[in-house]
Amino acid sequence: MKHTRLRPLAGLTAGIAVAALALSGCAGGGDDDSGGGPVTLTVWHYYNTDGQVATLEAMAKNFTDAHPDVKVDYQYIPVEQMTTKAVTAAGAKTGPDVIIFGASGTYDLSQSGAIEPMEWFEDFDGADQFPDGAMQRIDGTLYGVQGFVNLLGLWYNSDMMAELGIDAPPATIDELEEDMAKAVAAGKQGITLTGKPGLESQWQGFPWFTSHGFDYADAQAEPMAETYAMLQDWVDAGYLSKEATTWDQTVPFQQFAAGSALFAVNGNWQIAAAQEAGFEYGVAPLPISDEGGVLLGGEVQNIGAFSKNKELAQDYLESTFFSTEGELELLKGFGAIPTRSDAASASEIGDDPILSVFAQIVQSQGRPSPSPAVPSANVNAVEGLVGDFWSKAIAQEGTPDQLADDLMTQLLPLLEN
Amino acid sequence: MTGTDSVTTMRSPRPIVSSPSGSRPTGTTRARRRPPASDRRLAFALPAAALLAALAVWPLLVLGRMSVGAVTGATLNREWEFAGLANYAQLLADPDFAKIVLNTGAFVVIVTALGMAGGFAAAVSVWSGTKGGGFLLGMMVFVWALPPVINGSIWKFLLADHGLVNESLRALGLGAGGVGFLYDPKLALWSVALVNAWAVIPFNALIFRAALLSIDESVLEAAEVDGARPRHRVRYIFLPHVRPTATVLTVLTIVYAFRSFDFIYVMTAGGPGTASTTLPYLAYVEAFQRLDYGAGAATALLSLVVVVVFALVYARDVRRNEEVL
């Protein structure tokens, strides 16, 4: 591979330049544990809800019970700063012992030297439990493993469905539109989803535009135009609020949980939030065509390239994110779907009416994220661009055909290898 | 006048202020051993100059180098491949670029115009020192001290589809469907600009108020004796008096408006689509969301050029005011 040599001066310069672009905080790193005393294991993550933090602490306690001389130091890094911070830290030859990052950052982290190939994972006892879809590879080399996946489903308000005379959740887009029309006639919203510009909206839009036949491997304007037309019809009919263009993935679920909408396109991580809803609810696979798919998101785990405690970091990952018990702990706290086959078949999932549906969606609609047809170097640019156009479509910033043509003009060069 | 004095006078139009040693009798041993005054002043400036070079000039040079390089998250830590003007060409070729430049211009005009007019009006309101004026002043300081992220979040809540503003409009029978302040592509930019202007008014008011407080009481008393009404006082005393302050403040407000980022980030994320994206926000998206640092640097540098032009205007005005004083 070309240009893999790290240069101290280049690293310093890179750090200064990024600081000049934005004062985004300094790059800290793992402690030097060469001396005596307890060893500190630094873990960078971007989890911030109470349930997530409590789960991390519980996993740390289990780990330190087995390693009394170790202290686990969780360091929260805002999601949008994670890759940049890890890359600039690598430039200064520092960084965390363990890093938990978004899949779209795998390429940049691997090429910048912030993470290294996970050669050790082959020797891990439970490696054969992980499906290939949980492996993040760049040019065939493993750079991260997902201990769990997050994905989208169709949340529905069972009480409202009963009031509207709807027997079962929709299985096709036509049925979905019929149900939403009934909700709107009754003074409710049809559906909530995110339309905020950027990466989140690409993830949100993927099931719908693939359902209309779009494929990154052979990108065409027509399926996109059909998707945008569908969205704009929903807005015109009052099924979907244009305000979705200001919503991230949290706000639309709050709207749903408040009882204002019949459906919400949202993820498994909302399980705890759903329990606050004052009505009966359920989850169904998105009513998309057989061509459509749902991206399997979730965070990726690896050891920091400049960790001074690599064996300990490996031990931590193997006994937490990659262990059966750890994945079930994450399931409980995060609502995350385990990737290990033994954990995925646990009764905690099969007996749960919500989790079992998400597990079924993984099998029936799951697609790897990022999409393999998108060149690794352009993942962020492609996902950002497609997300922006999803937002434009909801805001009706152009006709479906215009928007689809404009998107293709910018997208096709990015999809060329 | 000695010959030395003549030389000193020729070197500086203000010998007493700018050259304290200029009036010192020449020919003494001590005077001959000491370096010239200008050299000593330069020595005093060295620490500041070194800091400035390390924290401002050097990062700017690196930013310039980055803007002509193929620098991404993947290549940031390697030797940066020279890309010429490719990043700038890519920026200009962006179909949304013209719209984003126009957005930036419109944003600056709204924030500056409303910020200045509102600031002056607020300063006149609190100038009198009444209880109401004191309360208003306290509220303005509170608004000014509020972090923009919190400020923006509150306004996002107020301007939402079912927020206070839309519900009030509905209660008044105006716009039953709600006004898409933050999601209508035609309104989003204006809404954020209005909020941004609202946030800058307290600062401008405080500066204008300081200028108004320096008006000689006797001038105001004379005007009152001559029968000047409040509007005359504003027109013929206040406005002329704050003109030099207003010039400098206008430049500062333009720069503030031009580099505004936080309100856009919190309230619309530049959307819907790119409807409320400005150049600084675009630089953020390119550098920190798409990890294309080269493109982000080119955009940031382009924005910086505009800010530097106004900074030069500001520096010239400050110097001119000092000369007048």
How does this model look, in words?
The complex is a heterodimer of chains A (417) and B (325). Chain A has 417 residues and is an alpha/beta fold. Chain A has two domains: 8-16 and 25-145 and 299-335, D-Maltodextrin-Binding Protein, domain 2 (3-Layer(aba) Sandwich); 152-296 and 371-415, D-Maltodextrin-Binding Protein, domain 2. In chain A, 44% of the residues lie in helices and 15% in strands. Chain A contains 17 helices and 14 strands. In chain A, the strands form five sheets. Chain A has a four-stranded mixed beta sheet with strand order 2-1-3-12. Chain A has a four-stranded mixed beta sheet with strand order 8-9-7-10. In chain A, helix 1 (8-21) packs antiparallel against helix 3 (79-91). Chain A is globular, with a radius of gyration of 22 Å. Residues 1-12 and 22-34 of chain A have low confidence and may be disordered. Chain B has 325 residues and is mainly alpha-helical. Among the domains of chain B are: 1-34, no CATH class; 97-276, MetI-like (MetI-like fold), CATH 1.10.3720.10. Chain B is built from 15 helices and no strands. Chain B has helices at 3-11, 15-18, 29-33, 37-67, 86-93, 97-127, 131-145, 148-158, 164-171, 188-213, 217-225, 230-258, 262-267, 279-289, 293-324. In chain B, helix 6 (97-127) runs antiparallel to helix 7 and helix 6 runs parallel beside helix 10. Chain B starts with a helix and ends with a helix. At the A-B interface, helix 1, helix 3, helix 4, helix 16 and helix 17 of A face helix 4, helix 14 and helix 15 of B.
